[in-house]
Structures are given as structure tokens and as C-alpha cells.
Protein 1
Amino acid sequence: MNFKKLLSRKYIIFTTITIVLIVAGYFLFFNSKNEQELLTVHPADFLQEVSASGKITAKENLNLSFQEAGQVSFVPVKIGDSVYAGQLLASQNNGELQAQFSQMQAGVDLQEAKLKQLLAGASPEDVQIAQDAVTFAKQNLTNSQVSALATLDNAYNAIYNAYTTVSYMQNTYFYASDIQGIKVQDSKRVISDSLDIAKKYLEDAKSSSENIDSAISRLNIDLNNTLSSLQIVRQQCEEGVYYLRVSTTDKNTLDTQKNTITTNLSSLSTIGASIASYKVAITQAQNALTLKKSPPRLSDIAVYQAQIDQAKASLQQVVAQLNKKRIYSPINGIITVVNAKVGGIFSSANTAISVISKNNFEIESFIPQINISLISVGQEAKIILDSYGDAEFLAKVISIDPAETIKDGVSTYKVMLEFINNDDNRIKSGMTGNIVITTLKKSNVISVPQGIIIYRNGQKFVHVKNGENINEAKVETGSVSFNGNIEIISGLQDGNIVIVK
């Protein structure tokens, strides 16, 4: 009995489910054929947009370092400080350079004072001092010329004594017509010629001080010729039978004469250099006197100005060295990192201080390759930052990287946007948000949902309802909007009714 009731109950349930399914199928299938979703098309604004995420970065984010290693001595800033371009941010120990700077600055001041003195003209005392300098230099030259005459006399006497000695050696030992005798005879003749020439130049020098320089030059030649001849004669004393024939005393006499000639050569060289230096001193003193007496010339002023410029250049070199020990802010910005500590040794390889630009931010976004062809510089965008809910910030595209960046295995391209209002204090580096870039904006465009387009034989159609009739209209399409509508370039008119479903 119970079994029959169970079967009867299952049959009722099954029958009920079957009836429900049949009724539902009828309404879904048969009735749906009679229901249509229609859309009347009208021209309207047409937008194409690309959405992405992004992060705010400072337009200028600078990591600053010392140019050279050294001990940090001064750090006047801390994280969060606002700084201006050119402000000192940190410096290293630079005591030695400061001393050089002071010295070079003093050099500049000195040269500038000299120029002022030149422009002011010389005082009577300065003129007298310059005149005394000329007199002193002339007296030194006169004294030197007197000494030169004595030196010339000594040189002449040295040549004469050498000639006497060689004559004695020839008459005593080298009278034969052998090779040694011929060489000694030739040497004697060279010394004799030198003696005659030296005598003439010496007499000219004694007659006029103007001839002293030429006499010194000439006797220098004669002394060298005499020395060469003495060396030849001395060499012959060691040849053949003369090695034993010539006495040691006479050989020593020749050596003494050679030394005397060498000494006189040195004396002539010294006195000649002394005379030359005193002549230069006279010229310089006379020029200085002339300069003192004359008004400053433009060329003189230019020389002094050049000396000032040279001193300033030396000063700038020290300044450049000092700047290597200092860090200045290159921009108006905010300090974000301070690694340099007073007393610590800091190298040029490490970042000492970081500064970002103030109220000058950009948005960095990475657009997938599928959308990058739609992006171009100058396009407008809306930014919704995570920190401010639905608040919108306007921006525009300023750059697109030509090379890809791989993100999660996908090729993307970095796109940088710039805020239209960069003075908004709400904008801060590091904030993230969503970006909507308007890639295309048109007015008076007819568009329909992209899904109702029928594709057949390379052509496109939509169903258009005209009264009770439904026709296929051939259409030409364009861009696709952000909400999935497709632009109808031709084939539909304002007021047409299309079948969406």
C-alpha cells in the first residue's frame, strides 16, 4: 500500500515538472519571435577611449652626489624641505681650497688695484724711483764693462802665453819636419793668428765700450782655437820619441796653459752674460720710466685687464674645485632623500641627496600593444586618483616610448601624461589611479551597437524596421567607441529604426 502511494507521488512530481518545462519553452521560444528590441538612431557625440592604470612621478627626480670623495662637513637640509635652484644642500671639508680661494681673490684684487694705479698716473716719487732705477742699471753696466776690459786683457795675455809656450816647445823639441813637428808648427800658426785678431778686437773695445760685446764674442773664438791647438801640441808630446824627449815639466806647462785658457773662457762667458743682463735691466728701467711719465695707453690698459682676467681665471679654477666639494640644488623642488651625514666619508659613487621637482608631475602608464596604435601625443585624458575617490584630474599625453616594455609577459609601451593643472596641491609623487585617454572624439555621428552588424560576403548590414516591414540596410562602418558602439559612416539616417534584438 505504501509502495503504491510512493509511486503515485513520484508520478505527480514528474508530470508537474514536465508541464512547467513545456510552458516555459513555449513562452521563451514562440513568444520571443514576436518580441523585438528597437533603437532609433540619432546623430550624437562619439567617443573612443582607452583605459589604463598609472602612477604619478616627478618630472624631475634627481639623485645628487659629490664629484669627489671626502668628509662631509655641512648638511643644512632635511627630508621634506623645499629648496630653490642654486641652494647649497651639502658640502665636504674644503679648508685648503678656501685658503687657495682667498689667495686667488687677493690676486684679483691686486691686479685690479694695479689697473687703478695705472689709470691714476705716476706720482713724482714714483717717477724719481724709476729714474734712479735707470741710473743704477747704467752704473752696473759701466762697472761690468770695466770688468770686461780686464777680462779681455787676461784672455789676450792667456793667448799670448800659450803662443810663447808653443814656440818654446817647437824650438826645443819639435824642430824636425816629421808628422809631430808639422802638427806643432800648424798649431803655433793658429795661435799666432788668434793672437793678432784678439789684439785688434781688444784695442777696439778699449777705444769704445760699444765694441766690448763683439770683442768678447771674438776672443771667445780665439780662446777656443788656442785651446784646441794646445791640446794638439800636448798630444804630440806623447807620440813616438817625444814621449821620452819632452820633459815632464814642459808637459805640465802645456797643461797649465790649457787650464788658463779654460778659466778665461769661463770668465768671458760670465762677464758677457752680466753685460747682457745689465743691458736688459737698463731697457726695462727706461721703459718703466717712460711708462711712469706717460699717460696710460689703451694697450697698457689692455695688458692690465688681461692680467686681471688671468687672475680671475685662476680664481675660477679654485671655485670649480670648491664646487666639486659642494652639492647645489639644480631645481626648485623638495628634498626626498638625505644620505650624507656630517663627519661621514662620502664617495662620488653614492647618492648623497635626492630632490624632486615641486608641483611639476607626470603620470606614467604602460599601454598594451593592442591599444597603443590608438594613442598619440596631445590626446586629452581624465585621471581618477585612488586617494581622492571620483575626483577627476585633466591631463594630456606628452610622450610615447618607441621601444616596448615587457609587463607580466605582455609587450607594453610607456606613455607619459602631464597634468593640465600642475599647481594642484593634492597631486603628489607616487599616487596611483585610473587613466581614461580620449583617443577619438567626433560630433554628429550615428552609431549602433557593434553586435547588431551582420557580416555577409564581405559586406555589412543591419536590420531596419520600416512600418511593419523589416529590411536589410547595407552600411559602411568606422571606429568603435569605448561603450561598444560602432560608427556608421553611410547607410543609416537620422530617425532610422534598427532592430537590436
Protein 2
Amino acid sequence: MADPIALLREQQEKRLVALGHQRTERQQRLVKLRQHETQLNTLIQDYSGAGEGHILLMANRSQMVTQLQPLVEQCQRQQAVAEADLASLDGQWRRQLGRRQGLVWLEGEKQRRLQNHARRLEQKQMDELAGRKRPG
């Protein structure tokens, strides 16, 4: 029969790995959102720059900045949601890590108890054998 602690530890390890993958994906999404915001802000700066030229070109730049600003705001909102999601997932991952570590410790304690019991049993048998060999 399989050890229930070992089975539970394996389940917890699988859950930990799954949460770790989700956590990595969320971190990557957040990085991409931040990069996207940076790109949008760079475009806004480029279009906002002091430009000389035709009045239509200046109007075009102003219109582009007006159209890009809502995209930056949307990206910031998505980042806020992604950060909250990542923080929640990170908390779940840390709790899961604690559970798995606890089970690893418990498994080790069980193994130590079994080894101690086996040593005591062996010592008892050796003591009994030694007692029988003595002429009395």
C-alpha cells in the first residue's frame, strides 16, 4: 500500500508546479503590458515633440496623441489588474510551497521514526541473542 503522506506530497507538488507555471505566465504578461505602455508613451513623446512644419502635420500629431492617450490608460488599467492577479497567484503559490514543505518534513519525520524503531528492534534482538549465548 502506498504511503498516504507521499501521495499527498506528490499531489501538492503537482499543484505547486501548475501554480508556478501560471505565475510565470502572469509575470510575462505583466512585462509585456509594461513594454507596451512604454512603447505607447514613446510614441506620444515623439508626436508631442516640438515640430515645425505644415499646420496639417501639427494637427495630425495632436490627433495621434489624443488617440494614443486612451490606449495608455487602458494599458495601465490592464497592468493594475495583472498586478493584482499576480499578487493573488503569488500568495497561492507561497501557501502551496509551505504545504509541500510541511509534507516533506512530515515524510522525513516518519522515515526517522521508522529507522529509530528498526534500530531499537534490532538492538533488542541483539540483546536477546547475547543473553542466550551466556552460560548461566
